Fold this protein.
Amino acid sequence: MQGTASGSVKPGQDDAAMKNGSETIIVRDASQNDWRDVRQLLDEAGLPVADLGPQQLVDFLVAERPGTDQSETLGIIGLQRFDQTALLRSLVVSQDDRNSGLGRRLVSAVEANACCAGVKDLWLLTIDAERFFESLGYKMMSRESAPDSIRNTQEFSGLCPDGAYLMRKVLDP
Ligand SMILES: CC(C)(COP(=O)(O)OP(=O)(O)OC[C@H]1O[C@@H](n2cnc3c(N)ncnc32)[C@H](O)[C@@H]1OP(=O)(O)O)[C@@H](O)C(=O)NCCC(=O)NCCS
């Protein structure tokens, strides 16, 4: 998947780059120009896109393999913020790049961003990646325990099936 290499890298959250074998992968803020790649990755993974568009990528990150002319988008992750609470969403790593630590790296980067923005309480919905998130400190929660801000998201109220797991992590400041 090709995309432009625009956007800023956050050195504190990412050390700018990760060596994956012999290659360098960067994690940076998403921009509206990333929308096509974001939508494609979400579509391929069967994750919700109906409530997203170029304007909603403000708190999204993309992982990419830089290229001379074009970069390749390998993964994405997003946040929907509501003061001190946020929904972590839209985590996808492209099929060919899974199991090399990129998923964990994206979660860690978005948690760092959330922390910087004053978020203390992170929630997410997942259909079958609950073990992955458990390994990163997320706990299974009942749907009734979700705060209104999370309940009112389209992901919670309609786009994710009722059988999706709801998980939460309280962030250390
Ligand atoms: C979940 C996902 C992002 C993980 O990305 P990744 O880059 O492969 O993850 P990492 O390489 O950082 O971590 C790999 C570890 O997580 C585990 N893991 C990955 N996906 C998993 C899943 N769906 N369920 C359980 N464990 C999973 C691997 O077994 C591996 O475990 P190990 O380190 O003990 O061997 C990726 O599988 C994906 O894009 N899935 C489709 C979309 C999705 O389910 N997103 C989550 C909902 S928002």
Summary: The CA atoms of residues 48 and 131 lie 20 Å apart.
